[in-house]
Queue: 4 jobs
Job 1
Amino acid sequence: MAGATSLAILNERIFACERCPRLRSHCAKVARVRRRAYADWEYWGRPVPSFGDPEASVLALGLAPGAHGSNRTGRPFTGDGSGDFLYPVLHEAGFASQPHAVSRNDGMKLAGLWITSVARCAPPGNKPTPEELRNCAPWLDREMSMLKHLRVVVCLGRIAFDGLLAHVIRTGNLNSRSGLVFAHGAEYALPGGLWAIASYHPSLQNTNTGKLTRPMLLKVFMRARELAEAGRTAAPAGQ
Ligand code: SF4
């Protein structure tokens, strides 16, 4: 439970973060103006806390909250097209208690999985700047150090993949990212005992065009489960 408490405290600190003035002002503006379809919603409009099982052995690492998805509902991948694609896959792979994610109070529970992103505030055009990604990186470092059973990171998109490699370099477990190339389904055993699996991001741009299909994403998460279960007999990552 100590891990759960630490992660909850960390989430509260992230909730209050103001390191990126451009992103904070964008999120607040989106929350104020709202989309007509969500006119009755009180938007979250703050940094979006991570979500999941503190005992997780798999981390799903995304890019950033969607303006009218997580920035509205306050939970990763909840309330937009990316989440509508992702959560049914997580349910089928046994990580999520239900396929539909609509709000923080919809009863969703995760088992063995933690979800976060490399930027925790919705960026204009879904594009955080390099400086904003650097600002947010220490939160990821802290969080990953608190996930004591972590074995596998599923990187949803190239920017998440880059963010994970930067984390592993910062923590001293990797000198160079040479040979570590983003490609859907690519998997790498990283020094320190962590596995990385790269996946296309479940954005509408990828899922509507068939670049990422449901079987492709399911295969990624089933492989993550397999690697996590194979690692249960070994020492926890980075220890
Ligand atoms: S993106 Fe991260 S570092 Fe920037 S304000 Fe949001 S929580 Fe803070």
Job 2
Amino acid sequence: MEGEAGERVDLTLLRRHLGAILAVFLCAAGLPLAAPPAAAAPGVPRVSDIRAWTNEIYTRVAIDTGDEVSWQANTLHADPARGLPPRIFIDIRGAGIRDEILRKPVEVRNGLLRQVRAGRFDRDTVRVVIDLERESTYRVFALPGPFRIIVDIDGEGAIPNLPTGPEAAAPSGPVAAVPSPEDPAPPSVIPPSVESPRAAASHPAPTRKHRVRVMIDPGHGGKDSGAIGPTGLKEKDVVLAIGRKIREKLSGSGEFDVRMTRDEDVFIPLEERTAMANKGRADIFVSLHINASPNRRAEGFSTYVLSRGASNREDLELAARENGVPIRKLQGIKFIIDDMFTGARKNESLRLAKTVNDAVVRHVSTRYPGAQSIGLKQAPFYVLVGARMTAVLVEASFISNAREEARLRDPSCLDGIADGVVEAVRYYGQNGILAHSDY
Ligand SMILES: [Zn+2]
């Protein structure tokens, strides 16, 4: 029975904070405790998991619903009189929720976040509440295929006042205040006016006290093979081999702290890869991929940085394929990309991407004369969205091109690609460009 146990825990959580208001809420909503769960209906999306990656200055929370849902995010100030911390809450309409999530809040308590809890707000709204230790800037966006809502919380960007515009006018009461029936339809992304102002500009110039941290991200893995070449070579295997070579070459000097998002043939969701880099406070994020095209003659190396759009159809198709979604789904995160990926970090990423691409082509050319450079490019890759460091995505030739696929079977070609990335990262690390890093 999804309903009963869930409701009970839900109420316990709410009751702890609400007292009398809860009774009013229940009457108003006409919500019997044993109401049949919305999720029992076939085809109704439901919150199936809540995942979190966190350190004391950064947290990413992912709320999995599988199917697309409408949602709305908002904030509430701390309410010392009631013992309530500042909260971010996300209302998900027309969704059910898995029992285990109702029973078990995600406890964090790391100085930024206390816990993430969820409950049924009314018959068809699930509310996920993030209890913060202190008021923080945040961004919320959704990724499709499968649908998940991502909340990025920046503990360094503490702000004195949360936004108070009409759209941000959170219910003045505690978490379970009843929404007005006139509430506007939830937007698919939070309008810019609702977002907390970014505090990046106020960051003091930090001095780096640790070795340069590099997160290498071999794309795909496990059930996701990535692109497959004419003779069956799989992108996921090639990029893992390249990633291991980069780690080995870069780790030798002791100058770099090199990590990998995966070191085996496993599937890792895109948002988790970014979260791993952020949580690990990487200075540089390099996502490794191999391109593919229906045009079997397409060839060459390119390196991308994040942008809201792309300059041509091929790049959009590439991003859609790497994101695992149809092109029409790429639109949803435009505002978020514009807002998050600006200023020094974008310039640094552009610079690193150009350096990487030039070096990779040069190193591969010594083994395979005539290796082509497509150059520096931009496209909306999900794996780069929300990365807090200099971040690039390498498309190391076309696995769909028979000649390039054959090269990619040659370990010396993979060495060349790895040498190029290593040279570029070294150059980048040694030239003080990292002084503007978020850390
Ligand atoms: Zn790929």
Job 3
Amino acid sequence: MKQVVITAYGDPHVLKTIEKEEPQPQAGEVKIQVKAAGINFADILARQGLYPDGPKPPCVVGYEVAGVIEALGPGVDSGLQGLRVLALTRFGGYASSVCVPANNVFEIPAAIDFFQAAALPVNYLTAYQLLVVMGGLKKDESVLIHNAGGGVGLAALDIARHIGARTFGTSSPGKHAFLKKRGLDHAIDYRSYDFLKEVNRLTEGRGCELVIDPLGGSHWKKSYKALRATGRLGMFGVSTLTQSGLSRPLRFIKLALQMPWYHPVKLMNGNKGVFGVNLGHLWHEPEKVQDWTREALKGVNEGWVRPHVDKVFPFEQAGEAQAYIENRKNIGKVVLVPEA
Ligand SMILES: NC(=O)c1ccc[n+]([C@@H]2O[C@H](COP(=O)([O-])OP(=O)(O)OC[C@H]3O[C@@H](n4cnc5c(N)ncnc54)[C@H](OP(=O)(O)O)[C@@H]3O)[C@@H](O)[C@H]2O)c1
């Protein structure tokens, strides 16, 4: 089989495609012949040595795949053979074959292809946890989605629209036309304008009931200020880590120094809440994640979950694919395919 390996921490050139022996499914597992593997921002942080959860190089990352079940381990229902499925993978997704527990695979709805299916698990499950499970977003509430044009951002927009919330989204300006077409109510160019001032202007100084923020550090402080009374801030990433010209340890120190501290009395008197989301730390709660996956797949069938794939790259161009995201060019998802 083919795998894309992070050979050492570094720039996109450290990604190399290698040939490896085919894996064999163990008891209770299925082997998926991968048709598409999703790229996530965490993979880029892992390559740069900025992802504490990431394996040490040489390693294969990748949290999600879509493909066809081509072999079954002992004890697995024979009806699964040949099914089109999507699955979360605990790393190892950048490969032409992966083995995963049989109860972690889900049949792909007929309405979407393998590329869209590979764009679904991480983005929609994260957004679902942020907006529905922990953010409790309701009809007619307002939500501010940072990086609304990214993978999680577009998923959050789909879910917020389904709920009937008023949507605000930050992104680079080149993505605004697309976002408006997808149904975003208010697009904010956060790279040239102060998003907090914009939110205050658009909400007559009230703010939003929910803000989801993957940037981290001092950005979380500012997002907190964009909360309306009864508002909730969902923190789920530290994209700003990639920006600085500092060495790796200094970046973490800078990030830690910029982190907000939320005093209970301040939260109480502000009628505000804060919470964190990390899908990669939920492997011990498979039933929850499986329930959310079923909801997302129901959303595909009902038409409100619309995974958007921007670009497809072959494994051999995994470096270019990650650079495309790092250069903020992506609108929605970028996926890898084993065959050029
Ligand atoms: N906690 C979790 O479970 C979880 C799960 C999935 C993702 N995440 C986090 O959510 C964020 C988005 O992930 P994603 O996979 O959906 O990626 P993505 O949003 O598609 O990532 C790329 C986009 O992020 C924006 N961005 C902001 N700061 C950036 C920077 N310093 N360098 C490059 N791009 C930057 C850019 O869009 P604009 O500038 O145009 O807005 C870029 O196009 C990441 O922080 C990721 O780690 C967390």
Job 4
Amino acid sequence: MIASRKLVIALTLSFVGASGIPTTTAAQGAKLQPADTIIINGNVHTINHKQAWAHAVAIRGEKIVAVGDNAEIEKLRGPGTKLIDAGGKLVLPGFVDCHIHFLEGSISLGQANLEGSKNPGDIQRILRAYAEKHPGDGWILGAGWNYAMFGEENLPNKKYLDELFSERPVFLVGYDGHTSWANSKALALAGINKDTPDPPNGAIVRDPKTGEATGALKESASSLVGNLVPKLARAEKIAALRAGMRWANENGLTRVHSAGGDFEEFDLYDELRREGDLTLRMYIAYFLDPPELRPKDLAAIEEARKKYSGDWLSAGVVKMMIDGVVESHTAAMLEPYTDDPSTKGKLFWDAGKYKSAVAELDKRGLQLFTHAIGDYAVRTALDAYENAEKVNHTKDRRPRIEHIETVSSVDIPRFGKLGVIASMQPLHAYPDEDTLRVWAGNNGPDRASRAWVWNSIAKAGGHLAFGSDWNVVTLNPWEGLQMAVTRQTTEDKPEGGWLPQERITLAQAVEGYTLGAAYAGRREKTEGSIEPGKLADLVIVSQNIFDIDPHEIAKTKVIKTIVGGRVVYQAGAK
Ligand SMILES: [Zn+2]
């Protein structure tokens, strides 16, 4: 598979091979000055179409200076050069998570993890163990429960929590972050009773007979309890971020695009950067709330853009959320929900105000991330982006739509046509009971036939960018890759994959986490592939994912993660 023979560029005389053509790609000025680090004996998949495979890489400072075969790269080895022998393992560009809530995820590492629970009994077991490890009367916090485990109702109930905790407040966020679950103690602390009105864009779920709150809190109603959770001190947040970065690096991530919850904490990230302790590159969006774009939003966005523009930490992107999620009927649809024809969901923004906010932000050269899950929300975002390009006469702005869980067939080709990036999270399509029964049931068969249409968007010329939405699901991109190519659960269900026509190739999926992700963050000139001149962000992994049964991809382990030429994760090291 190694095809480093017919190469591009390289201009440095020293690399001209016997045939007279250069055999190694090297950046200008690489010369024979020794490298700081060389990686040899690798199976290097570069994602550089001009030199798809190589054996070795040379790094100087933060950048890659040459990519080629072992002998060529060995020439750059000096007395002070650090040697990494990849032992024949697969080397890939560092992975990017294009949609993450990093601080929140980092904090969740210290809370009860409910992911993978199948029923309320599982949850109770996890919480009991958690409470034993964290005794006292403090809050019990956790995340990761799913809707399907509650049977018909598809919503949690405080009774399961009250059975265990009558005096300790419990607050558990659902796996998608859109619905929360509180016990009676937490509801009482929040002063929620029969007469408490629903907040805008939220609902306190109530027992139809008694009118009492059931403990399920949808969308903004979550904050009624969530706001009471004691805030972490600065040092605690920094500690959480360090743990989060370690976890991200361990999974092979070298950059993340934050889609909310981190902008307010720029200062913490900057402190880590100044101390040389950032091991993950951060692109952080300002979260713009409805009802409209205000001067104070613009001031905050512009100030951050000026202050943070480096390779490690940057702003200049705005996230807007125009609808909710399918499971709680808050995603905005063109037609009524199949299981509840009384509602189509609704936009969180007035469509006109959203459109003018998009146009103003686009005019300033800012990038846009719009959360849109229902087909009406997706269309609204495409319309607003199309309008912005027209009124501003702008090109190549790469606005993004985040999630796109279902989409009208007439809108699929618009991604490619308008240059709108489809930022999707493969594990959101995980075809378990929650997806196949609740999600698909709410949508009905027609809409559900256009669930997470990765392949259709790509075939019509659209760019894909992949991520996790951590801590909605794990940030492990290897599980995401397996999902993208199989559309099956880890038990290989359903047979042949759910909507198999929407599977993509492994090469496409890897690109969605690397070069495609860099493109989606406007950084493809400096990141996303292993080529001279680009930042030395790469991973060495345990198995050649291109050479195995796709159902084994999720088992991939990262051996080393390198960011900016520095080894930030090493398997087995403490
Ligand atoms: Zn998100």
